[in-house]
Design goal:
By secondary structure, this protein is α/β, with parallel strands linked by helices. The chain contains 13 helices and ten strands. The longest helix is centred in the middle third of the chain and has 15 residues. The two termini are about 35 Å apart.
Length: about 325
C-alpha cells in the first residue's frame, strides 16, 4: 500500500480507502456479517487506514463502530457525512439544509454511533455553490473543530458538478473535498484538482468504479437484484448508453478483467487525489483493489489519450 500526505490531519492516508455505502442493506441488499468483518480485518492488515461512511447509510455507522472496537482499530481515520435537514434542491439555503443546531446534534449522533471521542473528518453530504456567502454552517464546523469534536472539515460535491467546490476551496475554510472522478466523468481534472493542490485541500475520489460499471461484469445480460438501487439508476436506455461507452474502452485493448484496476489507476494517477474510496464487501475485493496501489500509474500520454472516455457532465 502506498500513502499520500494529508496536510490538515498531518497524517499519511492510504491511497485505497474503504467505502461503506455498499453495507446499507436498503440500497444494496443484505451483506454477510462474517464476511464484512473479515473485509475490515483484511483492509487493516493490507494497510488501509481510511474509512468513508455517512449517516445516510442506514445502520452503517454503528456497524463500523462495533467492528473497529472488536478489532481495536482506533487509529483508523474515519470520515462520515451529515445529510441535509430538508430535501436538497437548488432553492434550499444553507441555513435551511445545515442550521447550526442541526450540525451540532448530528455530530453528537455520529460520535455515539461510531463510539468515538472525535470524528477525524466530518463532511456535509451535499453542497451548493450558492451557499458560499452563508457563514453559519462553516462557523459551526470550525467551532466543533476547535472543541476537538472533529478533526477536519469536508464537503461532498454533487455528482457531475466538480466546479461547484472551487470558490469554497479558495477561501481556505475546508480541509477535504469528495468528488466523483472516474473514466466517464473526468471533469474534476479540468480545474478543481489543481485548485485543491494549490490550497492544500485533500481530495477523496468517489465513484471510481462508477457504481460497479467498471467491475468487468457489466453486459446486456447483467441483472440487478430487486433490492439493489442501481436497478432504477441504470434503467432504460441509460444502461445501454453506458455499455456503448464501455465498449469504446474495451476496443482500446482494456479487457473486462483489467478494467477495474485500470479505472483505479486512472484516479490515482492525478497527484491531487489523496485517496480513492472503493466499496468493498469481500476480502477478495480488498486484495484486488489494494494491489493497484503498488502498480505503475498511468503516464501523462496515456491520461491525455483516455480523455475521450469522458462524457458524464452537466
Amino acid at each position: 500500500m502506498q500513502y499520500r500526505y494529508c496536510h490538515s490531519l498531518k497524517k499519511n492516508i492510504s491511497e485505497i480507502s474503504l467505502g461503506t455505502w455498499g453495507l446499507d442493506k436498503y440500497m444494496w441488499g443484505k451483506s454477510d456479517e462474517k464476511e464484512v468483518y473479515k473485509t475490515f480485518e483484511a483492509a487493516r492488515t493490507l494497510g488501509i487506514n481510511f474509512i468513508d461512511t455517512a449517516q445516510a447509510y442506514k445502520g452503517v455507522e454503528r456497524l463500523i463502530g462495533s467492528i473497529i472496537k472488536e478489532l481495536n482499530w482506533y487509529d483508523v481515520i474515519i470520515a462520515t457525512k451529515i445529510p441535509p435537514k430538508i430535501y436538497f434542491n437548488n432553492s434550499v439555503k444553507a441555513s435551511q439544509a445545515y442550521p447550526a443546531e442541526y450540525i451540532i446534534s448530528q455530530t453528537e449522533k455520529s460520535l455515539i454511533s461510531l463510539g468515538l471521542e472525535q470524528i477525524p473528518l466530518l463532511q456535509l453530504h451535499t453542497w451548493n455553490s450558492e451557499w458560499f456567502g452563508e457563514k453559519e454552517w462553516i462557523y459551526t464546523l470550525l467551532d466543533l473543530k476547535k472543541e476537538g469534536k472533529i478533526g477536519a472539515i469536508g464537503l461532498s460535491l454533487v455528482d457531475h458538478m466538480a466546479s461547484s467546490g472551487i470558490e469554497i476551496i479558495k477561501s481556505g475554510s475546508i480541509d477535504f473535498i469528495q468528488v466523483m472522478y472516474n473514466l466517464f466523468d473526468q471533469s474534476a481534472k479540468d480545474k478543481l484538482l489543481d485548485v485543491c493542490f494549490k490550497n492544500s485541500v485533500s481530495v477523496i475520489a468517489r465513484s471510481v468504479l462508477y457504481e460497479g460499471f467498471f467491475s468487468g461484469k457489466m453486459d446486456l445480460n447483467y441483472q440487478f437484484n430487486d433490492d439493489d438501487w442501481r436497478k432504477k439508476y441504470f434503467k432504460g436506455t441509460y444502461f445501454e448508453t453506458c455499455l456503448e461507452r464501455l465498449e469504446v474502452i474495451y476496443s482500446d485493448g482494456i479487457s473486462p478483467n483489467k478494467i477495474a484496476s485500470y479505472a483505479i489507476s486512472f484516479a490515482l494517477s492525478h497527484p491531487s487525489i489523496t485517496t480513492a474510496v472503493l466499496g468493498m464487501r469481500s476480502v477478495k475485493h480488498v486484495w484486488e483493489n489494494v494491489r493497484v496501489s503498488d502498480s505503475i500509474l498511468l503516464s501523462p500520454m496515456e491520461l491525455k489519450k483516455i480523455r475521450k472516455y469522458h462524457w458524464l457532465t452537466v
